[in-house]
Amino acid sequence: MPNTKVVFRSGQSAVTSEPDTVPVTVPPSAIGRWQTRFNDGTRRARCELCPRRCVLKPGQRGFCFVRSNHDGVIVSDTYGRSSGFAVDPVEKKPLNHFHPGSSVLSFGTAGCNSGCRFCQNWDISKARDFDKLGVEASPEKIAQVAAARGIDSVAFTYNDPIVFAEYAIDTAEACRAQGIHPIAVTAGYMSAEARPAFYAAMDAANIDLKGFTEDFYWKVTGTHLQDVLDTIDYAVNEARTPDGNHVWVELTTLLIPGLNDDDAQLHAECTWIRERLGSDIPLHFSAFHPAWKMQDIPPTPHKTLTRAREIALNEGLHYVYTGNVHDRVGDTTYCPNPQCHATLIERDWYRIITDRLSGTDGRCPECGASIAGRW
User: Fold this and answer.
1) In sequence order, what are the residues at sequence separation of 6 or more whose Cβ sits closer than 8 angstroms to the Cβ of residue 97?
2) Is the Cα torsion angle 120, 126, 127, 133 positive or negative in sign?
3) Residue 200 in contact with residue 242, Cβ under 8 Å?
4) Secondary structure (3-state) at 224
5) Hey, where are the domains in the chain?
6) pLDDT tens for residues 101-137?
7) Phi-psi region of 271 (alpha: psi -120 to 50; beta: other; left: phi over 0)
8) Which of 49, 120, 337, 375 could bond 362 through an S-S bridge, CB–CB 3.0 to 4.6 Å?
């Protein structure tokens, strides 16, 4: 009998008519929506959510630790449970061209499908128990709380929302019903099958482009560069919201001294962005600080971020920022017209000093140039 490839939808039961199926007592919304079930009597199932495609026996967990096989059906074990909530400015995601100065309700769960040795949130993403998940919240409750507090957006962050995609998508739909923007902060290590539903649920995303060589990606993150490039390409060029708009995407590269900060990698990355995505995609270069399994590498020098920003601008990217350091120039949005270069949004860390774009048609007040973003 051939294997059964299943795409479960929210509210659909996991029970099928196959003779070797055992009913599972989990909420239908927590059932993995991307999986293949093996009809060989073993009750094995393959998770199709990310490129790892973990094949799991009953009781086994995937690489992410938070998706497991329950009697032949893969389940998202953290659905409806959070490691905590915080209200942040949208610039902290970072998103500099998406409703500047607005507030974001941020939350995550536990687990991750990447293996980054430098993980800044390792206590959450690498958790191997669910003690961190002390807050239970339904998608509808999250949306209601955000709306009641006048919060503009809800961000799925801290750990990668890819591993709790079902929860993120359902929460995004509940938020949209309340007029709240869903935002994903992700490393982009997602399967082609899962991308359409995930990105259709998001109004904006910040995607990590952690480096620009396969060697770096495999040795330092345990993932593959091409899979991430394919996700970024899809999110920018193909993904659409239900009303037909492009999903707004910004990229972040954490520069780690000696590993991904050389000129060749930076030139190659910026060239790919310009040629494949266009010059208007904002790019954030962020400073590394020693964490988890990379305590022996020093923090990123400020001058490295400045050099990377200059390379990106010289490669033709219009909006390039620095992060995790105090750099007013690197925080600020300027008009990309070389004859103008007017200051449009001046920032000091996450604080906005001057904003000449929000509430406008997104044009430079000095020269009339169109400024990419959601204003």
Assistant:
1) 248, 250, 282, 319, 333, 371, 372, 373, 374, 375
2) positive
3) yes
4) coil
5) 1-77, 81-355
6) 999 999 999 999 999 988 877 666 666 665 556 689 9
7) alpha
8) 375
How far apart (Å, rounded) are the C-alpha atoms in residues 202 and 195? 11
Cβ–Cβ contacts within 10 Å for residue 288, how many? 21
Sequence letter at residue 299: P
Binding residues: 112, 116, 119
- Feature table: binding site for [4Fe-4S] cluster: 112, 116, 119
C-alpha span between 74 and 66 (Å, rounded): 10
Number of residues that this document lists for the chain: 375
The Cβ of residue 229 has, within 10 Å, a number of other Cβ atoms equal to 17
Do residues 320 and 282 touch, judged by C-beta distance below 8 A?
A: yes
Which residues touch 129 (CB under 8 Å, ≥6 apart)?
none
Shortest CA distance to 200 belongs to which of 161, 172, 180?
172
Architecture of domain 81-355: Alpha-Beta Barrel (3.20)
**Mind listing the pLDDT tens digit for each residue in 254-285?**
999 999 999 999 999 999 999 999 999 999 99
Distance CA 107, CA 182 (A): 12
291-349 per-position pLDDT tens digit:
777 899 999 999 999 999 999 999 999 999 999 999 999 999 999 999 999 999 999 99
CB-based contact 334:320 (threshold 8 Å):
no
Q: What are phi and psi of 79, to 5 degrees?
A: -60, 130
Considering the entire predicted model, what is its pTM? Answer: 0.93
